[in-house]
């Protein structure tokens, strides 16, 4: 590993950006204190390898190491300092450290015009929806979909210079024919992105659709915005679970994306669209925007993007199945 820099931490793990075999990657470190935690970290790595899709993060390599005293000491001019990682994790001897190498990874520094930003938002949302649809077709519920669990792969073939990939299957759940499962408090993901039923001990594919709706709100509002900003996590959990707290979409938001976000974040899981429907709606919206852009270029006039109607035929209830 080379040129490592911390980009995020929490929940017993941390993620660095770094170079691995000449490729810029995300490296996730997970510390485990017991067999159950170790099995969970290894299961995440396995699921990431099995869930192969253009919009699900690829896992290149994994390793598990039992921590020893000498690993907590700096080693001069090492390519990267594992003791710094362990300090970041608050680890101690006899624990296990799982390293998951994922990527490639790209940091977006592009600035766009408002029109290009809107088209980029639709394309990014579509790629995330594609990745989630694949997980659901594979019988998996992600359980913790949020902006921090979407990584960007560099791409010179895309005007955005990246493509989006769903990552972090740390609390992903296989679901059977019943399409839902019971969970405990330790299996709840990031509070602000969780569906009402999750706080009542139920996880299903429709729960991921709800999380996508919150993520879409954040894509539209900007990465500097946080859902329910300033509210205490307990207040969020209580308000969402009782159907008394919902996202406020700011004035002037692109109406079709707001409509889709509101459909995805309905309190009743059965009323939410499936990811198949979400993908269909976003593809239809993207095609419509492309036709408008082409017509605008041909005529020299400025065409306005659609404000309604794009989602009507694609957003029927599906309960996320």
Main-sheet strand order equals 1-2-3-5-4
Output the CATH homologous superfamily of the largest domain. Transferase(Phosphotransferase) domain 1
CATH class descriptor of the largest domain? Mainly Alpha
Secondary structure class reads alpha+beta
Instruction: Give the helix level as a range of percent.
Output: 25-40%
Low-confidence stretches: 76-80, 312-321
Major β-sheet profile: 5 strands, antiparallel
Shape field: globular
Provide a count of the helices: 7
CATH architecture of the largest domain: Orthogonal Bundle
At the fold tier of CATH, the topology name of the largest domain is Transferase(Phosphotransferase), domain 1
Distance between the termini: 40 Å
- The average pLDDT is 77
Summarize this structure as a short list of keywords or feature phrases.
transferase; protein serine/threonine kinase activity; two-stranded antiparallel sheet; 5-stranded antiparallel beta sheet; 321 residues; 11 strands; 20% strand; Ser/Thr_Kinases-Pseudokinases; alpha+beta; Phosphorylase Kinase, domain 1; 2 domains; disordered C terminus; globular; Transferase(Phosphotransferase), domain 1
């Amino acid at each position: 590993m080379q040129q490592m820099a911390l980009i995020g931490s929490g929940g017993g793990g941390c993620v660095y950006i770094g170079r691995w075999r000449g490729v810029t990657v995300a490296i996730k470190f997970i510390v485990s204190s017991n067999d159950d935690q170790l099995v969970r970290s290894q299961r995440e790595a396995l699921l990431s390898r099995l869930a192969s899709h253009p919009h699900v993060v690829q896992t290149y390599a994994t390793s598990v190491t039992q921590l020893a005293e000498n690993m907590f000491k700096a080693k001069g001019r090492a390519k990267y300092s594992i003791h710094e990682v362990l300090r970041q994790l608050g680890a101690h001897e006899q624990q296990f450290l799982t390293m998951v190498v994922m990527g490639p990874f790209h940091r977006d520094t592009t600035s766009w015009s408002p029109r290009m930003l809107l088209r980029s938002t639709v394309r990014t949302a579509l790629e995330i929806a594609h990745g989630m649809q694949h997980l659901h077709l594979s019988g998996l519920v992600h359980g913790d979909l949020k902006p921090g669990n979407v990584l960007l792969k560099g791409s010179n073939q895309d005007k955005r210079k990246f493509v989006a990939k769903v990552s972090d299957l740390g609390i992903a759940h296989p679901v059977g024919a019943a399409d839902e499962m019971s969970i405990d408090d330790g299996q709840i993901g990031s509070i602000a992105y969780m569906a009402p039923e999750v706080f009542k001990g139920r996880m299903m594919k429709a729960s991921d659709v709800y999380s996508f709706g919150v993520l879409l709100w954040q894509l539209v509002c900007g990465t500097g915005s946080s859902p329910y900003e300033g509210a205490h996590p307990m207040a969020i959990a209580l308000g969402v679970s009782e159907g008394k707290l919902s996202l406020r979409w700011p004035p002037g938001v692109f109406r079709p994306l707001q409509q889709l976000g509101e459909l995805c974040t309905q309190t009743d899981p059965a009323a939410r669209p499936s990811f198949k429907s979400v993908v269909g709606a976003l593809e239809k919206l993207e095609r419509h925007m492309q036709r408008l852009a082409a017509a605008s270029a041909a005529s020299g006039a400025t065409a306005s993007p659609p404000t309604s109607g794009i989602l009507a035929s694609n957003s029927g209830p599906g309960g996320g199945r």
